[in-house]
Structure formats: structure tokens, C-alpha cells
Prior knowledge:
Helices cover 39% and strands 17% of the residues. The protein has 13 helices and twelve strands. It has helices at 17-30, 69-82, 125-134, 147-152, 179-190, 205-209, 216-230, 250-258, 261-275, 291-301, 311-326, 344-354, 367-372, and strands spanning 4-12, 34-39, 43-45, 56-65, 97-103, 108-110, 114-116, 167-172, 193-195, 241-244, 283-288, 333-337. Strands 1, 2, 3, 4 and 5 form a five-stranded antiparallel beta sheet that branches. Strands 9-10-8-11-12 form a five-stranded parallel beta sheet, sandwiched between helices.
Amino acid sequence: MAETTAYIGLGSNLGERKGNIDKALKMLAETGKIVIGPLSDVIETPPLASTEQPDYLNAVAEVRTSLTAQELRRMFSEIEAALGRVRHGKWWPRPIDLDLLLFGDEVINTPPELTVPHSQMHLRSFVLAGLCQLNPNLVHPLMNETVSELAGRLGGQDFALNSDVPQLVGIAGNIGVGKTTLARKLAARLGCGLVLEPYDTNPFMPDVYAGKKELALDSQLYFLTRRAEQLSPDALAEGQVCISDYVFHKEMIYARRLLDAEQLALYERIYSPFATKVAAPVLVVYMRDPAANCLERIHNRNRPYEQQIEVTFLQGLDEDYERLFEHWRACPVIRVSTSQASDVDHLALQIDYYTAGQFAAAGGAGRAAISSSK
Length: 374
């Protein structure tokens, strides 16, 4: 019978953790139906659950087997029970946890018994790091992205979907990169909410771009208060996906560029209380394009007050955004060029996997409909 290459996630946070992982691998091999291949590094990670419990040891193993995915999963349950696992609930500690991450390129969706690929493997750095060690070019059969690309989106963090908060997706990037255009297209494709920054309604902006530095603080405070209102948890529906054409964290980028030292000191004191009250994004799409291309778009859209913008200012903003997302750990970040962002269907599919909300019927009602359009 033909063999399938599969990838198994192993974890333990009770008892002799490394010993439990070794025993599980030995028991799998002793079945005579599974050939154990390479094993990733064993790494220690904190539990995802909010309850206090010991840290985990985690690893990923590549195996070859003639079993079906369903037979393999049943074998996992038997080994887990033999090693002392008692199933109290999703986030309880356990001496051993065996997860079927990938089974060839098969897609299986029979919850709660079996879902392949593993439904949240793309949110776990400890899983993706192991897969990258074994085969960084592995492609997620549904997301159509390599595990190395998926790992790069997490910044070394582990995340879990949470439908109890607004499912805010922020589009970030330089002036003129195409954030608003993409946000409109994604919201229309997904049938979800849309928040656009109050750019054209700022009464101080034309004067600031015209060189009236004394109005820069007024302009920044206008943006701060309006954006805080837009992104308040009270203004966004719990569990519902909403696309915004900015991220709140951009406030400090522009404040540092536009305000003098005295204005900035005052702004920072005002900013902090507002920043604690806005809904955090569950995903950021970070758009990038050379500053010269952004400047060309700015000229083409012909907003009078923007025509004073120079390429050096945009280059500075590029550097600021790069620093912001180099150290970003709050949520996954999908980095795309402006040209890549033209594939709206693919981006919509990615967004669905990083959000826990429900899309409206007009948007295709979730993953199945989005996937069917590929």
C-alpha cells in the first residue's frame, strides 16, 4: 500500500515532558505501520491557556505511514490514553498531546474528530518553527502559502482565535500605497464592515502640509480623537470582521515626524490614555511599495494639500513603518507589495483564517465560499 508523508505535532507539560515525547514516538514506531523520520528541535513554550499550568515542550516529527489519516488519529488517541492523558477540556494540561498537522496534501474536515490541515497550525510559532526545520517549502493545502511564509507572519508569537472581541483587520502602509483601495475591495469581497480614516475631514491638514507647523498638534489631536472613536470596542461589533484602512499605532509615527519637541511631549501624554481604549487588531495587512511609486499615486489622485509631499518624507515614513513591524508582536502581520495586493481573493482567504468572525452572506459565508473561488 502506498505510503503518505505526514507531520505530527507533539507536546507535553506534565511529568517527564521529554520522556513522554520520546515514549510517544517509540510507541508510534512499534506499531510497524509508521516510520519515524526527522524530528525538529524540542522547544519550551508557555501555555496558550490563561489558566496557570506548566510550560510545554513541543516538537514536530515527519513520518511515513500506510495508515489513513483517520486510522492515524485513532492511534494517537490510544497512545495518549496509554501515557496518561485524561481529556478534561481544550486547554487542560496533559502528559502528551499528538496532533496531525498535515497528511500529504489531503484536506479533511470532519470536526470534532479530525480536521486536516490542523485548524490553527498557522497561528502557532512553535508548530511552524518545527515544520520550517523539517521542510520550509511545505505548502498549506488550503491557504496556499509555505510554512516559512506563515511563520514569518507571527513574529515568533503564538496566537488563538477569539470570537469575543471585534475582529479588526488593519491595513497599514505609507501614504499613497493603496490602503483605502484595498480596504474597500476586501470589505466588499468579504461582506464585512469598513472603517476609513477621517483624512479629508481634518480641517487642519491643508495648512499643516502648507507649512504651518503651529497647527501640527491640532491636526494630530483631531486624528487621535476621531480614530479613537472609530476603533472603540463600543463602535465595533464583537465577533464581527471589520476592515480599517489604517492601524491606530501609526499615530506616533506621524506625531514624531510632524511635531516639534514641545508639541510631541504634550501629545504623548494625551495619546497614552486613548491608546489603551481602542480595539486591538487581530490581523494587520502591511502594504509596501517604493516611495517613488507612492509619490506618483499621490500626484495622480491630485489632492491639492498633498502636492507638497516630497519623496524624502515618504522614505522616512517607510523606515518608520519598517521599524514598527520589525518589533510588532500584537497580532499576525501579512506583508504584501502593492502588486500582490491586487489578488483580493487570495488576501480574503488569508483574512478568513486569521479571524474568528462570521462574514455576511454577501461575502461568501466564510472559508468554503472563498476557497471555491480559487
